[in-house]
Design brief:
Keywords: Membrane, Transmembrane, Transmembrane helix. Helices cover 70% and strands 0% of the residues. With 220 residues, it is an all-alpha fold. The chain has one domain.
Length: 220
């Protein structure tokens, strides 16, 4: 999507800037492996071993594809923590409680960022584009990022609304299905919708995300 007046170098989308849904796809594999291991064996230790082995394989694949070692290790650590919680409580559904808590916390953080006029979408994109705080001194970009950030709040709220009752009922299979359905497809949809909201929030004459327009009299 390109609006009249925008520069050619701003034709890239949020998916281009943020890396698309590749990471979300990889993140769904270990939880699905855990659910399969549990459903087949009905043994938590088997499900745990399966999920950790699969997580290690995914991590090696990501590392060989050039992903940063810290991000790879964090991914494995997340699976390990989820597995430890399930082993400690003896409830397979508790493997997904980390995901539930993370989404609830993310919804709150994104909401607070909008209220305090530091929308996280602007913070993330601004860091990627090395703009420091220039985007925030552009009224149009600040408004656009704020509106688009509500889409991300909605993404996390949807996950919590689905995961919470499934976790409460202890339906491991449904949790695994929801983990996939509300992972990369929802991320892709969120990226698309927030990009559309952001673009439509900017006036036609605005040069785009890479070119914040700081009004005269405002410190750069």
């Amino acid at each position: 999507m390109k609006t009249a007046g925008r520069r050619d170098d701003d034709a890239e989308t949020l998916a281009d800037l943020l890396g698309g849904a590749r990471g979300a796809i990889d993140a769904t594999i270990p939880p699905v492996a855990f659910a399969v291991g549990w459903l087949v064996s009905r043994e938590l230790w088997v499900a745990t071993v399966v999920s950790l082995v699969v997580a290690a394989i995914v991590a090696v694949w990501q590392w060989r594809k050039g992903r940063k070692p810290r991000a790879v290790l964090l991914g494995v650590a997340g699976v390990a923590v989820a597995a430890m919680i399930a082993l400690r409580t003896g409830r397979a559904e508790d493997f997904f409680v980390v995901q539930l808590a993370a989404n609830a916390a993310s919804a709150l953080v994104w909401l607070v960022s909008i209220v305090f006029r530091w929308p996280l979408l602007g913070v993330v994109v601004g860091l990627i584009l090395r703009q420091r705080g220039a985007w925030r001194r552009d009224p149009a970009l600040l408004r656009g990022y704020s509106r688009a950030s509500w889409v991300w709040v909605g993404q996390y709220v949807v996950r919590v609304a689905v995961f919470a009752p499934l976790w409460w009922s202890g339906d491991v299979f449904a949790l695994a299905v929801a983990r996939v359905a509300l992972s990369w497809p929802l991320v892709a949809l969120c990226l698309l919708v927030s990009w559309i909201v952001l673009q439509r929030s900017l006036p036609p004459e605005h040069p785009g995300l890479r070119h914040p327009q700081v009004p005269e009299g405002v410190l750069r």
